[in-house]
Protein backbone atom coordinates (compact mmCIF):
# COMPACT_ATOMS: atom_id res chain seq x y z
CA UNK A 1 0.00 0.00 0.00
CA UNK A 2 1.41 3.38 -0.93
CA UNK A 3 2.15 5.84 1.83
CA UNK A 4 -0.28 8.49 0.55
CA UNK A 5 -3.21 6.08 0.20
CA UNK A 6 -3.52 4.99 3.81
CA UNK A 7 -7.01 3.92 4.82
CA UNK A 8 -8.55 6.02 7.58
CA UNK A 9 -11.55 5.46 9.85
CA UNK A 10 -13.64 6.82 12.70
CA UNK A 11 -14.31 5.14 16.06
CA UNK A 12 -17.97 4.05 16.13
CA UNK A 13 -18.06 1.74 19.17
CA UNK A 14 -15.95 0.93 22.25
CA UNK A 15 -16.14 -2.26 24.36
CA UNK A 16 -13.19 -1.92 26.79
CA UNK A 17 -10.14 -2.93 24.66
CA UNK A 18 -12.20 -3.77 21.59
CA UNK A 19 -12.89 -0.75 19.38
CA UNK A 20 -15.18 -0.78 16.33
CA UNK A 21 -14.01 1.49 13.50
CA UNK A 22 -15.97 2.63 10.45
CA UNK A 23 -13.47 2.48 7.59
CA UNK A 24 -13.14 4.51 4.41
CA UNK A 25 -11.24 1.95 2.32
CA UNK A 26 -9.67 -1.53 2.31
CA UNK A 27 -8.05 -3.00 5.45
CA UNK A 28 -6.70 -6.50 6.02
CA UNK A 29 -6.81 -8.97 8.90
CA UNK A 30 -4.07 -8.34 11.54
CA UNK A 31 -3.25 -4.91 10.07
CA UNK A 32 -1.91 -2.34 12.53
CA UNK A 33 -3.63 1.00 13.05
CA UNK A 34 -3.25 3.98 15.37
CA UNK A 35 -6.22 5.60 17.13
CA UNK A 36 -5.74 9.30 17.76
CA UNK A 37 -6.80 10.06 21.35
CA UNK A 38 -6.38 13.85 21.58
CA UNK A 39 -2.81 13.76 20.29
CA UNK A 40 -1.83 10.40 21.87
CA UNK A 41 -1.52 7.56 19.34
CA UNK A 42 -2.85 4.21 20.59
CA UNK A 43 -1.60 1.14 18.72
CA UNK A 44 -4.21 -1.48 17.75
CA UNK A 45 -4.56 -4.58 15.55
CA UNK A 46 -7.45 -5.54 13.26
CA UNK A 47 -8.95 -8.83 14.43
CA UNK A 48 -12.15 -8.92 12.37
CA UNK A 49 -13.55 -7.09 9.34
CA UNK A 50 -17.31 -7.01 8.59
CA UNK A 51 -18.39 -4.85 5.67
CA UNK A 52 -17.27 -1.27 6.38
CA UNK A 53 -16.54 -2.02 10.07
CA UNK A 54 -13.16 -3.12 11.41
CA UNK A 55 -12.95 -4.61 14.92
CA UNK A 56 -9.57 -3.71 16.41
CA UNK A 57 -7.94 -4.81 19.67
CA UNK A 58 -6.07 -1.95 21.34
CA UNK A 59 -2.70 -2.68 22.97
CA UNK A 60 -3.24 0.20 25.43
CA UNK A 61 -5.85 1.35 27.93
CA UNK A 62 -8.83 2.90 26.14
CA UNK A 63 -9.87 5.06 29.12
CA UNK A 64 -11.20 8.43 27.92
CA UNK A 65 -11.60 7.32 24.29
CA UNK A 66 -14.73 8.76 22.61
CA UNK A 67 -16.77 7.85 19.56
CA UNK A 68 -15.76 9.97 16.57
CA UNK A 69 -11.97 9.87 17.15
CA UNK A 70 -9.90 9.39 13.98
CA UNK A 71 -8.00 6.17 13.10
CA UNK A 72 -5.16 5.67 10.62
CA UNK A 73 -4.34 2.22 9.17
CA UNK A 74 -0.68 1.50 8.46
CA UNK A 75 -0.91 -1.08 5.68
CA UNK A 76 1.25 -3.69 7.49
CA UNK A 77 0.87 -6.29 10.24
CA UNK A 78 2.41 -6.14 13.74
CA UNK A 79 6.13 -6.39 13.01
CA UNK A 80 9.29 -6.88 15.02
CA UNK A 81 12.62 -5.28 14.21
CA UNK A 82 15.37 -7.88 13.77
CA UNK A 83 19.05 -7.05 13.93
CA UNK A 84 22.09 -7.02 16.24
CA UNK A 85 21.38 -5.56 19.68
CA UNK A 86 18.44 -7.77 20.75
CA UNK A 87 20.37 -9.86 23.30
CA UNK A 88 20.47 -8.82 27.00
CA UNK A 89 17.46 -6.55 26.41
CA UNK A 90 14.14 -6.30 28.21
CA UNK A 91 11.23 -5.71 25.83
CA UNK A 92 7.48 -5.55 26.25
CA UNK A 93 5.14 -7.53 23.97
CA UNK A 94 5.32 -4.88 21.24
CA UNK A 95 9.15 -4.91 21.37
CA UNK A 96 9.45 -1.54 23.10
CA UNK A 97 12.73 -1.36 24.99
CA UNK A 98 11.61 -1.22 28.62
CA UNK A 99 14.98 0.07 29.82
CA UNK A 100 14.54 3.24 27.75
CA UNK A 101 11.17 4.04 29.29
CA UNK A 102 10.96 6.44 32.19
CA UNK A 103 8.90 6.04 35.36
CA UNK A 104 7.57 2.99 37.14
CA UNK A 105 4.46 2.65 34.99
CA UNK A 106 4.36 2.63 31.21
CA UNK A 107 2.80 5.73 29.74
CA UNK A 108 0.05 5.31 27.20
CA UNK A 109 1.11 5.86 23.60
CA UNK A 110 4.83 5.78 24.41
CA UNK A 111 6.71 3.56 21.95
CA UNK A 112 10.51 3.19 21.89
CA UNK A 113 12.84 1.87 19.21
CA UNK A 114 13.82 -1.76 19.94
CA UNK A 115 17.26 -1.47 18.35
CA UNK A 116 19.72 1.41 18.27
CA UNK A 117 20.26 1.64 14.50
CA UNK A 118 23.10 4.12 14.97
CA UNK A 119 25.17 1.66 17.03
CA UNK A 120 28.35 0.57 15.23
CA UNK A 121 29.25 -3.11 14.82
CA UNK A 122 32.39 -4.89 13.60
CA UNK A 123 31.23 -6.58 10.41
CA UNK A 124 32.92 -9.60 8.78
CA UNK A 125 31.63 -10.54 5.27
CA UNK A 126 30.69 -14.20 4.62
CA UNK A 127 29.24 -13.88 1.09
CA UNK A 128 31.14 -12.64 -1.97
CA UNK A 129 30.06 -10.94 -5.20
CA UNK A 130 28.51 -13.40 -7.65
CA UNK A 131 27.04 -15.70 -4.95
CA UNK A 132 23.41 -16.76 -5.42
CA UNK A 133 21.43 -16.14 -2.22
CA UNK A 134 17.84 -16.53 -1.00
CA UNK A 135 15.90 -15.24 2.03
CA UNK A 136 17.82 -16.16 5.19
CA UNK A 137 21.20 -16.69 3.46
CA UNK A 138 24.13 -15.40 5.52
CA UNK A 139 25.83 -12.30 4.10
CA UNK A 140 28.15 -11.58 7.03
CA UNK A 141 28.39 -11.62 10.81
CA UNK A 142 28.95 -9.33 13.78
CA UNK A 143 29.80 -10.27 17.39
CA UNK A 144 26.78 -9.75 19.66
CA UNK A 145 28.09 -10.36 23.19
CA UNK A 146 29.89 -13.66 22.41
CA UNK A 147 27.41 -14.95 19.82
CA UNK A 148 28.20 -14.74 16.10
CA UNK A 149 25.16 -12.76 14.93
CA UNK A 150 24.57 -13.50 11.24
CA UNK A 151 23.45 -10.67 8.94
CA UNK A 152 21.00 -12.31 6.57
CA UNK A 153 19.13 -11.68 3.34
CA UNK A 154 15.79 -10.22 4.56
CA UNK A 155 13.10 -12.88 5.04
CA UNK A 156 10.68 -10.86 2.88
CA UNK A 157 12.83 -11.40 -0.26
CA UNK A 158 11.27 -13.99 -2.58
CA UNK A 159 13.17 -15.98 -5.18
CA UNK A 160 16.92 -16.05 -5.93
CA UNK A 161 19.18 -13.00 -5.73
CA UNK A 162 22.77 -12.44 -6.82
CA UNK A 163 25.25 -10.69 -4.55
CA UNK A 164 26.47 -7.61 -6.42
CA UNK A 165 28.56 -6.10 -3.65
CA UNK A 166 29.42 -6.78 0.04
CA UNK A 167 31.16 -4.27 2.27
CA UNK A 168 34.68 -5.30 3.33
CA UNK A 169 35.40 -6.12 7.00
CA UNK A 170 35.07 -2.99 9.10
CA UNK A 171 32.87 -1.04 11.51
CA UNK A 172 29.43 -0.02 10.26
CA UNK A 173 26.20 1.33 11.72
CA UNK A 174 23.34 -1.14 11.94
CA UNK A 175 21.29 1.01 9.54
CA UNK A 176 23.97 1.42 6.86
CA UNK A 177 23.93 -0.75 3.71
CA UNK A 178 26.31 -3.69 4.01
CA UNK A 179 25.39 -5.42 0.73
CA UNK A 180 23.74 -4.81 -2.64
CA UNK A 181 21.72 -7.69 -4.14
CA UNK A 182 20.41 -7.99 -7.68
CA UNK A 183 16.89 -9.42 -7.70
CA UNK A 184 15.07 -11.70 -10.17
CA UNK A 185 13.68 -8.48 -11.72
CA UNK A 186 17.27 -7.21 -12.39
CA UNK A 187 16.77 -4.38 -9.89
CA UNK A 188 19.37 -3.69 -7.19
CA UNK A 189 18.38 -3.84 -3.50
CA UNK A 190 20.41 -2.47 -0.61
CA UNK A 191 20.50 -4.61 2.53
CA UNK A 192 21.37 -3.30 6.02
CA UNK A 193 21.84 -5.20 9.29
CA UNK A 194 18.22 -4.53 10.28
CA UNK A 195 15.02 -6.01 8.86
CA UNK A 196 11.35 -6.27 9.89
CA UNK A 197 9.07 -9.30 9.97
CA UNK A 198 5.35 -9.74 10.92
CA UNK A 199 5.06 -11.76 14.13
CA UNK A 200 1.99 -13.81 13.22
CA UNK A 201 3.68 -15.35 10.15
CA UNK A 202 6.26 -18.15 10.74
CA UNK A 203 9.76 -17.56 9.31
CA UNK A 204 10.36 -20.34 6.77
CA UNK A 205 13.91 -19.53 5.63
CA UNK A 206 15.01 -23.18 5.78
CA UNK A 207 15.07 -26.17 3.40
CA UNK A 208 13.76 -28.94 5.64
CA UNK A 209 12.14 -29.42 9.04
CA UNK A 210 12.49 -33.08 10.07
CA UNK A 211 11.08 -34.63 13.22
CA UNK A 212 13.49 -33.72 16.02
CA UNK A 213 15.73 -36.58 17.14
CA UNK A 214 18.68 -35.27 19.21
CA UNK A 215 18.42 -35.46 22.97
CA UNK A 216 18.64 -32.03 24.58
CA UNK A 217 20.54 -32.36 27.83
CA UNK A 218 19.07 -30.23 30.62
CA UNK A 219 21.03 -31.64 33.59
CA UNK A 220 17.68 -32.30 35.32
CA UNK A 221 17.49 -36.06 35.90
CA UNK A 222 13.70 -36.41 35.97
CA UNK A 223 13.63 -34.83 32.49
CA UNK A 224 16.76 -36.30 30.83
CA UNK A 225 16.35 -39.82 32.19
CA UNK A 226 12.60 -40.26 32.55
CA UNK A 227 10.94 -37.86 30.08
CA UNK A 228 13.58 -36.51 27.70
CA UNK A 229 12.99 -33.43 25.60
CA UNK A 230 14.76 -33.17 22.25
CA UNK A 231 16.50 -30.31 20.49
CA UNK A 232 13.68 -28.53 18.67
CA UNK A 233 11.07 -30.27 20.80
CA UNK A 234 8.05 -28.91 22.63
CA UNK A 235 7.10 -29.43 26.24
CA UNK A 236 4.97 -27.81 28.87
CA UNK A 237 4.96 -27.58 32.63
CA UNK A 238 1.53 -27.28 34.25
CA UNK A 239 1.41 -26.86 37.98
CA UNK A 240 -0.35 -25.12 40.84
CA UNK A 241 1.00 -22.06 42.64
CA UNK A 242 4.16 -22.77 44.67
CA UNK A 243 5.03 -26.08 43.04
CA UNK A 244 8.44 -24.90 41.81
CA UNK A 245 7.82 -23.80 38.18
CA UNK A 246 10.21 -20.83 38.49
CA UNK A 247 13.09 -22.85 40.00
CA UNK A 248 12.66 -25.49 37.29
CA UNK A 249 12.71 -22.77 34.60
CA UNK A 250 15.86 -21.26 36.11
CA UNK A 251 17.49 -24.71 36.12
CA UNK A 252 16.56 -25.27 32.48
CA UNK A 253 17.78 -21.86 31.35
CA UNK A 254 21.10 -22.23 33.17
CA UNK A 255 21.91 -25.81 32.27
CA UNK A 256 20.11 -26.74 29.06
CA UNK A 257 22.23 -27.22 25.96
CA UNK A 258 21.13 -23.99 24.27
CA UNK A 259 23.07 -21.14 22.68
CA UNK A 260 20.58 -18.52 23.75
CA UNK A 261 17.44 -18.14 25.81
CA UNK A 262 14.29 -16.12 25.23
CA UNK A 263 11.95 -15.72 28.18
CA UNK A 264 8.40 -14.57 27.49
CA UNK A 265 6.75 -13.47 30.72
CA UNK A 266 3.24 -13.34 29.41
CA UNK A 267 0.59 -11.84 31.67
CA UNK A 268 2.65 -12.53 34.80
CA UNK A 269 1.95 -10.76 38.06
CA UNK A 270 4.18 -7.72 38.36
CA UNK A 271 6.13 -9.15 41.34
CA UNK A 272 6.97 -12.31 39.33
CA UNK A 273 8.28 -10.20 36.45
CA UNK A 274 10.35 -8.09 38.86
CA UNK A 275 11.86 -11.38 40.13
CA UNK A 276 12.83 -12.33 36.56
CA UNK A 277 14.40 -8.89 36.00
CA UNK A 278 16.35 -8.98 39.25
CA UNK A 279 17.32 -12.68 39.37
CA UNK A 280 18.17 -13.41 35.74
CA UNK A 281 20.99 -10.86 35.44
CA UNK A 282 22.50 -12.35 38.63
CA UNK A 283 22.51 -15.97 37.44
CA UNK A 284 25.92 -17.29 36.44
CA UNK A 285 26.16 -19.15 33.17
CA UNK A 286 27.91 -22.49 33.86
CA UNK A 287 28.73 -22.88 30.14
CA UNK A 288 30.71 -19.65 29.72
CA UNK A 289 31.45 -18.53 33.30
CA UNK A 290 29.85 -15.16 32.50
CA UNK A 291 26.38 -13.84 33.31
CA UNK A 292 23.42 -15.75 31.89
CA UNK A 293 21.82 -12.46 30.82
CA UNK A 294 24.49 -12.11 28.10
CA UNK A 295 22.69 -14.74 26.04
CA UNK A 296 19.13 -13.98 27.16
CA UNK A 297 16.34 -11.71 25.95
CA UNK A 298 13.30 -11.07 28.14
CA UNK A 299 9.87 -10.14 26.76
CA UNK A 300 7.75 -9.02 29.67
CA UNK A 301 4.07 -8.43 29.88
CA UNK A 302 2.62 -7.95 33.33
CA UNK A 303 -1.00 -8.79 34.07
CA UNK A 304 -1.86 -5.10 34.53
CA UNK A 305 -0.81 -4.29 30.95
CA UNK A 306 -3.79 -4.46 28.53
CA UNK A 307 -4.77 -8.05 27.69
CA UNK A 308 -4.23 -7.70 23.94
CA UNK A 309 -0.51 -7.11 24.50
CA UNK A 310 -0.21 -10.59 26.09
CA UNK A 311 -1.10 -12.21 22.81
CA UNK A 312 1.48 -10.07 21.00
CA UNK A 313 4.23 -11.00 23.49
CA UNK A 314 4.23 -14.76 22.77
CA UNK A 315 4.35 -14.15 19.00
CA UNK A 316 7.11 -11.55 19.39
CA UNK A 317 9.17 -14.04 21.43
CA UNK A 318 8.68 -16.84 18.88
CA UNK A 319 9.65 -14.57 15.95
CA UNK A 320 12.88 -13.53 17.72
CA UNK A 321 13.56 -17.24 18.29
CA UNK A 322 13.03 -18.01 14.59
CA UNK A 323 15.41 -15.17 13.66
CA UNK A 324 18.22 -16.63 15.79
CA UNK A 325 17.40 -20.19 14.65
CA UNK A 326 18.07 -19.10 11.05
CA UNK A 327 21.60 -18.19 12.20
CA UNK A 328 22.20 -21.88 13.00
CA UNK A 329 21.76 -21.46 16.76
CA UNK A 330 20.01 -23.60 19.37
CA UNK A 331 17.34 -21.44 20.96
CA UNK A 332 15.48 -22.27 24.17
CA UNK A 333 12.17 -20.40 24.42
CA UNK A 334 10.42 -20.36 27.80
CA UNK A 335 6.90 -18.91 28.02
CA UNK A 336 5.35 -18.24 31.40
CA UNK A 337 2.44 -18.59 31.41
CA UNK A 338 0.45 -19.59 28.35
CA UNK A 339 -2.73 -19.77 30.48
CA UNK A 340 -2.71 -15.99 30.75
CA UNK A 341 -2.28 -15.73 26.97
CA UNK A 342 -5.32 -18.01 26.58
CA UNK A 343 -7.26 -15.79 29.01
CA UNK A 344 -6.51 -12.81 26.74
CA UNK A 345 -7.85 -14.78 23.76
CA UNK A 346 -10.96 -15.62 25.80
CA UNK A 347 -11.52 -11.99 26.75
CA UNK A 348 -11.30 -10.73 23.16
CA UNK A 349 -13.49 -13.60 21.91
CA UNK A 350 -16.16 -12.78 24.50
CA UNK A 351 -16.10 -9.07 23.58
CA UNK A 352 -16.63 -9.98 19.94
CA UNK A 353 -19.63 -12.08 21.09
CA UNK A 354 -18.31 -15.23 19.43
CA UNK A 355 -19.80 -18.61 20.31
CA UNK A 356 -17.94 -19.73 23.48
CA UNK A 357 -16.27 -23.13 23.87
CA UNK A 358 -15.54 -24.98 27.15
CA UNK A 359 -15.01 -22.61 30.13
CA UNK A 360 -15.86 -19.71 27.75
CA UNK A 361 -12.52 -20.09 25.92
CA UNK A 362 -12.69 -19.61 22.10
CA UNK A 363 -13.84 -22.66 20.15
CA UNK A 364 -10.60 -22.66 18.13
CA UNK A 365 -8.27 -22.54 21.18
CA UNK A 366 -6.71 -25.99 20.44
CA UNK A 367 -5.97 -24.87 16.84
CA UNK A 368 -4.40 -21.57 17.97
CA UNK A 369 -2.17 -23.33 20.52
CA UNK A 370 -1.20 -26.11 18.07
CA UNK A 371 -0.22 -23.72 15.28
CA UNK A 372 1.88 -21.72 17.75
CA UNK A 373 3.72 -24.80 19.12
CA UNK A 374 4.28 -25.97 15.52
CA UNK A 375 6.58 -22.99 14.94
CA UNK A 376 9.22 -24.56 17.22
CA UNK A 377 11.38 -27.29 15.72
CA UNK A 378 14.70 -28.47 14.32
CA UNK A 379 15.56 -27.20 10.83
CA UNK A 380 18.16 -27.63 8.09
CA UNK A 381 19.13 -24.21 6.71
CA UNK A 382 19.90 -23.29 3.09
CA UNK A 383 23.65 -23.76 3.66
CA UNK A 384 23.36 -27.19 5.33
CA UNK A 385 23.71 -25.89 8.91
CA UNK A 386 21.08 -26.77 11.51
CA UNK A 387 19.21 -24.61 13.99
CA UNK A 388 16.48 -25.30 16.53
CA UNK A 389 13.88 -23.74 18.79
CA UNK A 390 13.00 -25.83 21.83
CA UNK A 391 9.80 -24.45 23.32
CA UNK A 392 8.75 -25.07 26.92
CA UNK A 393 5.60 -23.32 28.07
CA UNK A 394 4.25 -23.23 31.59
CA UNK A 395 0.53 -23.45 32.25
CA UNK A 396 -1.06 -22.21 35.48
CA UNK A 397 -4.32 -24.13 35.70
CA UNK A 398 -6.80 -22.64 38.16
CA UNK A 399 -6.68 -24.64 41.40
CA UNK A 400 -4.17 -27.08 39.88
CA UNK A 401 -6.92 -28.66 37.74
CA UNK A 402 -5.13 -30.44 34.86
CA UNK A 403 -8.41 -31.20 33.08
CA UNK A 404 -9.17 -27.56 32.15
CA UNK A 405 -9.21 -26.49 28.46
CA UNK A 406 -5.79 -24.79 28.25
CA UNK A 407 -3.95 -27.81 29.70
CA UNK A 408 -5.98 -30.22 27.56
CA UNK A 409 -5.38 -28.19 24.36
CA UNK A 410 -1.65 -27.88 25.12
CA UNK A 411 -1.44 -31.64 25.73
CA UNK A 412 -2.54 -32.19 22.13
CA UNK A 413 0.16 -29.84 20.80
CA UNK A 414 3.20 -30.43 23.04
CA UNK A 415 5.13 -33.69 23.03
CA UNK A 416 6.45 -33.56 26.61
CA UNK A 417 4.25 -33.17 29.65
CA UNK A 418 6.00 -32.33 32.94
CA UNK A 419 3.14 -32.29 35.45
CA UNK A 420 4.07 -30.57 38.70
CA UNK A 421 2.22 -32.10 41.63
CA UNK A 422 1.10 -30.22 44.73
CA UNK A 423 1.50 -33.40 46.77
CA UNK A 424 5.18 -33.79 45.80
CA UNK A 425 5.82 -30.10 46.42
CA UNK A 426 4.17 -30.34 49.86
CA UNK A 427 6.39 -33.31 50.79
CA UNK A 428 9.45 -31.32 49.55
CA UNK A 429 10.21 -33.77 46.73
CA UNK A 430 11.74 -31.34 44.23
CA UNK A 431 11.63 -30.97 41.29
CA UNK A 432 7.98 -31.77 41.95
CA UNK A 433 7.41 -33.39 38.54
CA UNK A 434 4.99 -36.28 38.94
CA UNK A 435 6.83 -39.36 37.57
CA UNK A 436 3.63 -41.24 36.74
CA UNK A 437 1.46 -38.49 35.19
CA UNK A 438 4.34 -36.98 33.18
CA UNK A 439 5.44 -38.36 29.82
CA UNK A 440 7.62 -37.73 26.77
CA UNK A 441 6.20 -38.90 23.45
CA UNK A 442 9.69 -38.56 21.97
CA UNK A 443 10.60 -41.90 23.62
CA UNK A 444 8.28 -43.51 21.03
CA UNK A 445 10.13 -41.92 18.08
CA UNK A 446 12.41 -44.46 16.33
CA UNK A 447 14.79 -41.55 15.53
CA UNK A 448 15.33 -40.77 19.23
CA UNK A 449 15.49 -44.46 20.17
CA UNK A 450 18.37 -44.89 17.68
CA UNK A 451 20.07 -41.75 18.97
CA UNK A 452 19.86 -42.96 22.60
CA UNK A 453 21.14 -46.43 21.66
CA UNK A 454 24.13 -44.91 19.81
CA UNK A 455 24.99 -42.10 22.21
CA UNK A 456 24.14 -43.52 25.66
CA UNK A 457 23.81 -47.31 25.46
CA UNK A 458 21.89 -50.10 23.72
CA UNK A 459 19.88 -50.96 26.84
CA UNK A 460 19.20 -47.35 27.97
CA UNK A 461 15.57 -47.19 26.82
CA UNK A 462 14.83 -50.59 28.38
CA UNK A 463 16.32 -49.42 31.69
CA UNK A 464 14.23 -46.22 31.65
CA UNK A 465 11.01 -48.17 30.99
CA UNK A 466 11.94 -50.63 33.75
CA UNK A 467 12.46 -47.74 36.22
CA UNK A 468 9.06 -46.29 35.25
CA UNK A 469 7.48 -49.70 35.83
CA UNK A 470 9.06 -50.02 39.30
CA UNK A 471 7.71 -46.55 40.21
CA UNK A 472 4.20 -47.56 39.13
CA UNK A 473 4.33 -50.87 41.04
CA UNK A 474 5.66 -48.98 44.08
CA UNK A 475 2.73 -46.56 43.97
CA UNK A 476 0.26 -49.49 43.83
CA UNK A 477 2.00 -51.17 46.78
CA UNK A 478 1.93 -47.90 48.78
CA UNK A 479 -1.84 -47.62 48.26
CA UNK A 480 -2.33 -51.22 49.45
CA UNK A 481 -0.16 -50.61 52.55
CA UNK A 482 -2.19 -47.46 53.28
CA UNK A 483 -5.49 -49.32 53.10
CA UNK A 484 -4.55 -52.61 54.82
CA UNK A 485 -1.88 -51.35 57.24
CA UNK A 486 1.82 -52.28 57.54
CA UNK A 487 1.19 -55.76 58.92
CA UNK A 488 -1.80 -56.47 56.65
CA UNK A 489 0.27 -56.98 53.49
CA UNK A 490 3.05 -59.45 52.61
CA UNK A 491 6.65 -58.27 53.04
CA UNK A 492 6.92 -58.17 49.22
CA UNK A 493 4.71 -55.09 49.15
CA UNK A 494 7.08 -53.23 51.50
CA UNK A 495 10.04 -54.22 49.33
CA UNK A 496 8.25 -53.09 46.15
CA UNK A 497 7.40 -49.73 47.73
CA UNK A 498 10.90 -49.09 49.10
CA UNK A 499 12.59 -50.02 45.82
CA UNK A 500 10.45 -47.37 44.10
CA UNK A 501 11.47 -44.91 46.85
CA UNK A 502 15.16 -45.55 46.02
CA UNK A 503 14.48 -44.43 42.41
CA UNK A 504 12.46 -41.47 43.69
CA UNK A 505 15.09 -40.18 46.14
CA UNK A 506 18.17 -40.90 44.03
CA UNK A 507 17.07 -40.24 40.44
CA UNK A 508 13.93 -38.07 40.57
CA UNK A 509 14.82 -35.70 43.39
CA UNK A 510 17.56 -33.17 42.84
CA UNK A 511 18.94 -30.22 44.78
CA UNK A 512 18.85 -27.17 42.47
CA UNK A 513 20.90 -25.16 44.98
CA UNK A 514 23.80 -27.63 45.40
CA UNK A 515 26.82 -27.05 43.18
CA UNK A 516 27.29 -30.72 42.26
CA UNK A 517 23.73 -32.01 42.35
CA UNK A 518 22.16 -29.07 40.45
CA UNK A 519 23.23 -30.41 37.06
CA UNK A 520 23.92 -34.05 36.18
CA UNK A 521 25.66 -34.90 32.88
CA UNK A 522 24.13 -37.79 30.94
CA UNK A 523 27.15 -40.03 31.55
CA UNK A 524 26.59 -39.77 35.30
CA UNK A 525 22.81 -40.25 34.89
CA UNK A 526 23.49 -43.50 33.02
CA UNK A 527 25.85 -44.74 35.74
CA UNK A 528 23.49 -43.88 38.61
CA UNK A 529 20.44 -45.40 36.90
CA UNK A 530 22.42 -48.62 36.43
CA UNK A 531 23.39 -48.58 40.15
CA UNK A 532 19.81 -47.96 41.30
CA UNK A 533 18.34 -50.67 39.06
CA UNK A 534 21.03 -53.01 40.41
CA UNK A 535 19.59 -52.45 43.91
CA UNK A 536 15.99 -52.84 42.64
CA UNK A 537 16.81 -56.17 40.97
CA UNK A 538 18.56 -57.59 44.03
CA UNK A 539 16.69 -60.12 46.15
CA UNK A 540 16.77 -59.22 49.89
CA UNK A 541 15.83 -61.37 52.88
CA UNK A 542 14.07 -59.87 55.94
CA UNK A 543 12.56 -61.43 59.06
CA UNK A 544 9.72 -58.89 59.34
CA UNK A 545 8.45 -55.71 57.70
CA UNK A 546 9.89 -53.54 60.54
CA UNK A 547 13.42 -54.16 59.21
CA UNK A 548 12.67 -52.95 55.65
CA UNK A 549 12.19 -49.22 56.33
CA UNK A 550 15.44 -48.50 58.28
CA UNK A 551 17.50 -50.67 55.92
CA UNK A 552 16.39 -48.88 52.76
CA UNK A 553 16.78 -45.50 54.43
CA UNK A 554 20.46 -46.34 54.94
CA UNK A 555 20.77 -47.23 51.23
CA UNK A 556 19.05 -43.98 50.18
CA UNK A 557 21.26 -41.94 52.51
CA UNK A 558 24.48 -43.32 50.99
CA UNK A 559 23.13 -42.78 47.47
CA UNK A 560 22.32 -39.16 48.42
CA UNK A 561 25.94 -38.65 49.55
CA UNK A 562 27.07 -40.01 46.17
CA UNK A 563 24.82 -37.44 44.41
CA UNK A 564 26.48 -34.64 46.39
CA UNK A 565 30.02 -35.88 45.58
CA UNK A 566 31.91 -35.15 42.39
CA UNK A 567 31.55 -38.03 39.93
CA UNK A 568 34.26 -40.71 40.31
CA UNK A 569 36.03 -38.69 43.02
CA UNK A 570 37.57 -40.31 46.15
CA UNK A 571 34.45 -39.49 48.19
CA UNK A 572 32.17 -40.90 45.49
CA UNK A 573 34.10 -44.21 45.44
CA UNK A 574 34.13 -44.34 49.25
CA UNK A 575 30.31 -44.08 49.39
CA UNK A 576 30.04 -46.62 46.58
CA UNK A 577 32.05 -49.14 48.61
CA UNK A 578 29.87 -48.40 51.66
CA UNK A 579 26.77 -49.06 49.54
CA UNK A 580 28.12 -52.47 48.45
CA UNK A 581 28.65 -53.43 52.12
CA UNK A 582 25.07 -52.47 53.05
CA UNK A 583 23.63 -54.44 50.10
CA UNK A 584 25.67 -57.54 50.98
CA UNK A 585 24.25 -57.51 54.54
CA UNK A 586 20.79 -58.54 53.33
CA UNK A 587 21.41 -60.07 49.91
CA UNK A 588 19.31 -63.21 49.54
CA UNK A 589 21.34 -66.36 49.03
From TrEMBL:
It is an enzyme of class 7 (translocase). GO terms for biological process: ATP metabolic process. Its EC number is 7.1.2.2. Keywords: ATP-binding, Ion transport, Nucleotide-binding, Translocase, Transport. GO terms for molecular function: ATP binding; proton-transporting ATPase activity, rotational mechanism. Residues 219-440 form the ATPase F1/V1/A1 complex alpha/beta subunit nucleotide-binding domain. It holds the Pfam family ATP-synt_ab_N. The keyword Nucleotide-binding applies. InterPro entries: ATP-synth_a_Xtn, ATPase_a/bsu_AS, ATPase_F1/V1/A1_a/bsu_N, ATPase_F1/V1/A1_a/bsu_nucl-bd, ATPase_F1/V1_b/a_C, P-loop_NTPase, V-ATPase_asu. Residues 113-200 form the ATPsynthase alpha/beta subunit barrel-sandwich domain. Residues 11-75 form the ATPase F1/V1/A1 complex alpha/beta subunit N-terminal domain. It catalyses: ATP + H2O + 4 H(+)(in) = ADP + phosphate + 5 H(+)(out). Belongs to the ATPase alpha/beta chains family. Produces ATP from ADP in the presence of a proton gradient across the membrane. The V-type alpha chain is a catalytic subunit. This is V-type ATP synthase alpha chain. It comes from Lentimicrobium saccharophilum.
Amino acid sequence: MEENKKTTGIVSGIIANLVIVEISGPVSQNEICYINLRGTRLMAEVIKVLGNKAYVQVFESTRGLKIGESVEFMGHMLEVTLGPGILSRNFDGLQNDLDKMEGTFLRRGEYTAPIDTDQAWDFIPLAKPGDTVVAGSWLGEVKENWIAHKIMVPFKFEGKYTVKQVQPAGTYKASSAIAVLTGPDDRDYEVSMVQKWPVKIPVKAYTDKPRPFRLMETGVRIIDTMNPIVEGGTGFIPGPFGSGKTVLQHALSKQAEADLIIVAACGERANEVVEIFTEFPELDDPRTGRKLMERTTIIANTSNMPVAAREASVYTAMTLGEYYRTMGLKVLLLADSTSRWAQALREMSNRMEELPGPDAFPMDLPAIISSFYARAGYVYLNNGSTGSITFIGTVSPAGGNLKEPVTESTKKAARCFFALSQQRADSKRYPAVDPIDSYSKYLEYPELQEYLAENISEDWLGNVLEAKNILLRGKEAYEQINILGDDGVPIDYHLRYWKSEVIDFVILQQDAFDKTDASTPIKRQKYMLGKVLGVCNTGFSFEGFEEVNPYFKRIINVFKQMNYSLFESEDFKKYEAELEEIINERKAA
